[in-house]
Specification:
By secondary structure, the chain is mainly beta. It has one domain: Jelly Rolls (Sandwich), CATH 2.60.120. It contains 1 helix and 11 strands, in the order E-H-E-E-E-E-E-E-E-E-E-E. The strands form 3 sheets. It has a 5-stranded antiparallel sheet. Strands 3-9-6-7 form a 4-stranded antiparallel sheet, with no helix packed on it. The longest helix has 4 residues. The radius of gyration is 15 Å and the shape is globular.
């Protein structure tokens, strides 16, 4: 039996959607699981991310969106600060938080792909800053 409240109900999304259905940056493929299209979400985006080996993305930020990620495998670096010289690196079991409006670059300087579960709210906003 399904019960809805105000026209909304619990939903299960089986697997992720194609990366082409959400905003992207080079080197990090975002595959949505929960978003406005898959579940009717209006304040959160949740998906799987694959970070290609030996790849650096372009400078960007996520506007008003905050970002949280859980690294499943591999290692992911987030470069920030003046000329993107500072970075934090996360590995399996680590969580990453990137505040809203912070220009940064994601990268994977290693030979193996990295994978993370990514959550962003209110949506998967990606504002590329040019290279």
């Amino acid at each position: 039996m399904s019960t809805s409240v105000g026209g909304k109900q619990v939903k299960v999304v089986h697997g992720t959607q194609a990366a082409s259905t959400t905003a992207q940056t080079r080197g990090m493929e975002r595959q949505p699981g929960i978003d406005g299209n898959t579940a009717g979400a209006s304040k959160i985006w949740l998906g799987n991310v694959i970070c290609a080996p030996n790849t650096m993305g372009p400078p960007h930020h996520h506007g008003e969106a905050e970002t949280a990620a859980y690294v499943v495998k591999g290692r992911i670096r987030v470069y920030f600060g003046e000329d993107f010289k500072e970075y934090e690196e996360a590995g399996p079991g680590d969580f990453i938080f990137v505040p809203a409006h912070i220009p940064h670059i994601e990268g994977n300087p290693y030979d193996e792909p990295a994978e993370a579960v990514l959550s962003r709210g209110p949506d998967n906003i990606v504002i590329n800053l040019g290279e």
